Amino acid sequence: MPKASLADFRRHFGQWKNFKVLFGAAWSWFALDVAFYGLGLNSAVILQTIGFGPPAADPANPAATLQQSLHNVAVGNIILALGGLLPGYYFTFAFIDSWGRKPIQVCRELEYA
To answer: Are the C-beta atoms of residues 45 and 54 closer than 8 Å to each other?
Structure first.
């Protein structure tokens, strides 16, 4: 079997029916990554806003400052998870089964026919 080349890639995905599948999959993963990792990028700002940022430094008792900082990070991340991740999980769980996986697959198969 010959090794696939860039020309083979262009010929295959140059057709609209093949390109739209590649683009749809790539865009879906990109959007998911932006949403998922975007929460992590902004979590420090969000934690600071809701009052769970790093505490003021106390030179007399650095262990207490470290403990308070770890506590704030842990509680703040639990709050972010309860506010963002869990509702998304339950929304998906509720609707993927009510809409059904099979109709989604059937529509996809009809597209290739």
So the answer is: no
